[in-house]
């Protein structure tokens, strides 16, 4: 790196080709573009991030990596297509989510910006840079990857143009991941069906119109509206129609209209060691960590590219050696914990393990069930880029407490003060009046709906505090058969299918709502940026109490206080 007239010329590993120059926007904190950047204006909207309020437009964004949602690739695509994106992106190390959005913009729409990874030392030196210039950077395109005859045929267009476009994208991402060959996968879960803007819709419809058809069983993530009821719910045509059209395009390509961000709750779940391709950050983490299946944290749009070809990079968590923990986190002894422990702990451990797979010790005695692990994983995937976690004595690859004893892992010992600090971060609003209780991020399970019904039974909801739950159709059907839906409706719960809180807008969120209460660590983090509201966080019981009395009184749980 050299400097001339305060402009730094940089070189590194080129992930996407191009030339650019611009003012530096530097951060050493990873960023999720979904929930972190406004795709229309280019503003950083993650209110927990040091760059909150800054504009990306026309600047060279220098950041270590991405984190959080797989939908970040969709936001990058929209920013590039509407002219509000950065002039270039400089990373510390190669990463998939940001880069894939740029690759799709280039491959499908002919629009691009350069993306370069410069390494730790050069990245640190850019902290004081004022302007950056990237000149004629040229990326590799995966020519060193060994292709089968079938791969070659797909690339040559023998399975249609959609599959050929998809294979080009797969090969570029395989090169980024350092893969030397591709593997067969057995199923896919598509996160790219979320409506991020007209670019994402155009991408899906183009693949459909080119004859794209999935070649493995493929499920769809939660979409941006309740597909069957958005008009009755008062959702605007400007959102409802394109959001439904995105979903319809993926269904036309053969995907199942499951519309859930918790595909691991479906009856047909991946088996241990099964090679799959899942996007949606919480689903990826759950699949790897709790089910023991094998998937990388796939960005939106790469998910459908792999579903159309049946081929994925042989890299990352598909490989057993890439699944080992890289650090240990110990949790202090806690007495009488409730369900708020798990999202709190996941959120906190994600912040101290931003890109390393952790081994968590000290919680097996609390016997976390699948709902607890769902809540932990979703919050962890919000603040960490790591694709999985291990919990000693709980998760399948760490059931034997001595499984990783030989690794001599660096250790971080959490304290009660750390837990209280994380609680304060998730409770961005002062205790007091609440205008909405939000549950189901990720989608509620049938067992969570049963627990909620038990808490609501015999109580009366405050008339000015809606309690809204998002859940998948199949889990709601189970709860309905068990009689729990009737109890929830009697209390005044509103049940919303197909979409999830990371996409829900007004009027499901009341226009006059200022404070939202949730039991989701994921939504407590993303909510302020996505909705403009402030958040309260607590247990499921605390959420029901708030819905009854109209306020959260701000009491710390006994186990935390």
UniProtKB/TrEMBL annotation:
Family matches, as CDD domains:
AcnX, AcnX_swivel
Q: Which UniProt keywords apply?
A: Iron, Lyase
Question: InterPro entries annotated for this entry?
Answer: AcnX (IPR012047), PMDh-L-like_dom (IPR007506), PMDh-S-like_dom (IPR002840)
Name the domain of life: Bacteria
Q: Which residues form the Phosphomevalonate dehydratase small subunit-like domain?
A: 31-115
Q: Name one GO molecular function term.
A: lyase activity
Statement: the UniProt record of this protein carries the keyword Nucleotide-binding: no
Location of the Phosphomevalonate dehydratase large subunit-like domain: 146-545
In the UniProt record, does the keyword Metal-binding occur? no
**Protein name per UniProt:** 2-methyl-cis-aconitate hydratase
Q: What organism does the UniProt record list as the source?
A: Agrobacterium albertimagni AOL15
């Amino acid at each position: 790196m050299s400097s001339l007239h305060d402009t730094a010329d940089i070189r590194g590993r080129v992930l996407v080709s191009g030339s650019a120059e611009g003012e530096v926007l530097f951060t050493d904190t990873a960023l999720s573009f979904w929930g972190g950047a406004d795709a229309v204006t280019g503003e950083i909207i993650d209110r927990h991030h040091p760059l909150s309020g800054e504009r990306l437009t026309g600047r060279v964004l220098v950041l270590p990596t991405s984190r959080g949602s797989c939908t970040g690739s969709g936001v990058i695509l929209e920013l590039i297509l509407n002219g509000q994106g950065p002039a270039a992106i400089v990373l510390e190390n190669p990463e998939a989510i940001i880069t894939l959005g740029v690759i799709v913009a280039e491959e499908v729409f002919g629009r691009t910006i350069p993306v370069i990874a410069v390494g730790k030392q050069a990245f640190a030196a850019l902290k004081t840079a004022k302007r950056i210039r990237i000149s004629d950077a040229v990326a590799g395109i995966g020519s060193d990857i060994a292709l089968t005859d079938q791969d070659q045929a797909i690339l040559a267009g023998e399975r249609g143009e959609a599959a050929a476009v998809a294979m080009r994208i797969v090969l570029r991402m395989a090169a980024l991941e350092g893969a030397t060959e591709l593997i067969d996968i057995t199923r896919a879960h598509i996160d790219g069906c979320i409506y991020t803007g007209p670019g994402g819709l155009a991408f899906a419809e183009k693949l459909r119109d080119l004859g794209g058809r999935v070649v493995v069983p493929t499920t769809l993530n939660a979409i941006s509206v309740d597909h069957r009821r958005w008009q009755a719910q008062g959702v605007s045509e400007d959102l409802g129609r394109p959001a439904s059209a995105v979903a319809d395009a993926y269904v036309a390509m053969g995907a199942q209209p499951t519309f859930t961000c918790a595909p691991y709750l479906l009856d047909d779940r991946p088996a241990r060691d099964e090679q799959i391709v899942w996007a949606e950050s919480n689903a990826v983490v759950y699949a790897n960590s709790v089910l023991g299946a094998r998937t990388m944290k796939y960005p939106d749009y790469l998910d459908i590219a792999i579903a159309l070809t049946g081929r994925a990079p042989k890299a990352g968590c598909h490989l057993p050696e890439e699944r080992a923990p890289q650090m240990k986190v110990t949790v202090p002894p806690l007495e009488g914990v409730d369900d708020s422990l798990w999202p709190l702990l996941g959120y906190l451990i994600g912040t101290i393990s931003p890109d390393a797979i952790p081994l968590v010790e000290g919680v097996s005695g609390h016997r976390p069930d699948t709902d607890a692990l769902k809540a932990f994983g979703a919050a962890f995937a919000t603040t960490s880029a790591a694709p999985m976690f291990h919990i000693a004595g709980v998760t399948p690859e760490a059931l034997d407490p001595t499984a990783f004893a030989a690794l001599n892992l660096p250790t971080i010992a959490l304290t009660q003060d750390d837990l209280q600090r994380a609680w304060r971060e998730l409770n961005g609003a002062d205790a007091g009046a609440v205008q909405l209780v939000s549950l189901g991020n990720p989608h509620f399970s049938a067992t969570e709906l049963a627990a909620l019904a038990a808490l609501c039974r015999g109580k009366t909801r405050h008339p000015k505090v809606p309690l809204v739950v998002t859940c998948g159709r199949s889990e709601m059907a189970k709860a309905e058969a068990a009689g729990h839906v009737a109890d929830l409706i009697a209390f005044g719960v509103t049940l919303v299918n197909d979409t999830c809180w990371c996409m829900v807008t007004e009027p499901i969120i009341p226009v006059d709502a200022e404070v939202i209460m949730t039991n989701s660590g994921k939504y407590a983090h993303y909510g302020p940026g996505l909705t403009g509201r402030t958040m309260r966080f607590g247990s499921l019981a605390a959420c029901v109490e708030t819905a009854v009395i109209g306020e959260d009184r701000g009491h710390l749980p006994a186990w935390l206080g």
